[in-house]
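Data deposition worksheet. Section B asks for the primary sequence of the deposited chain exactly as it was used as input, without tags or linkers unless they were present during the calculation. Section C holds the resulting structure in token form. Section D is free text for depositor observations; keep each observation to a single sentence. Incomplete worksheets are returned to the depositor.
Section A, Depositor: J.P.
Section B:
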Amino acid sequence: MEYVTHPLIRENTIERRMYQISIATTALTKNTLVVIPTGLGKTTIAALVIASRLLNEDGKVLFLAPTKPLVEQHARFLKKVLKVEEIVSLTGEVSPEKRKETWERARIIVSTPQVIENDILTGRISLEDVILLVFDEAHRAVGNYAYVFIAREYMKTAKKLILAMTASPGSDPERIMEVIQNLGIEAIEVRTEWDDDVAPYVGKKRIEWIKVEIPEEMKEVKEKLEDCVKTRLNRLREMGIEVPESSSKRDLLALQDAIQAEAAGGNSEMFEALSILAEILKLQHAIELIETQGVRAVKSYLKKLVREAMSRGGSKAAKSIVNDPNFKKAVVALSKCGT
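Section C:
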């Protein structure tokens, strides 16, 4: 096994994986959103970027995570792999005076965002000397979550560089675009366990498929949801985007990436296509639940969709689905099914 060698990385602690190094290289030049499944080394990528940044720039690193257990987990890992003395964790349990003192002496601060937001607002800390800001669970950077305020304040500084990481960005293009805008993202690095540079590090899985017949009472629900999907596929075709009805989830996600690229290039029509595609992904997930998990799981998911559509910040995709007559028929048919 080959390990990364670096003046600020402890010997024989980080395995040399080219996909991690490639992502870290991008993240050192642009504000980057990293989308990578759990277990493939998001925090390792962050450690690579942190080490390089601290070696070449004067200042400190701020690493944000949404919960105290995550803060403690990240701090332990960074202490294990980095040759940096002042790595500290901050949570609401630390007094304001102690937090200010700790901030001033630390080189790496791992913290919950609410603490940092409060300390910025009260003037206890400044982000001026932060040379790297890491957001874990970056998909939370929407609405009035503390990530949004901190990113906005940080973008006013001179040394700004943002690394945002998530394993689950979601399928709603509106929320993904909101995250990208709120964090000032300039590049997106996506990896899956099927990518050529990742596959060698993923353990082989033995999968046994057992096919069962869908209960008769569920077939009507499935048919109505499939009608919803067909309607949206026709809308995409009218926009000049041909999508086969047999497209897998992976195919649709790949198409989503391609459309996002066009939208980013200034093609405003593609934003509508992204919204339609988000609806298709949600509907196909419901169909998949019918085929694999049964009545209870489908009822739970459709109720969640309805709640999302009715909520104040509900997505456009959820509202469109819930207002579809075929979706309403599917809900009625589902209500007649037992659990």
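Section D:
The CA atoms of residues 131 and 159 lie 5 Å apart.
The mean pLDDT is 91.
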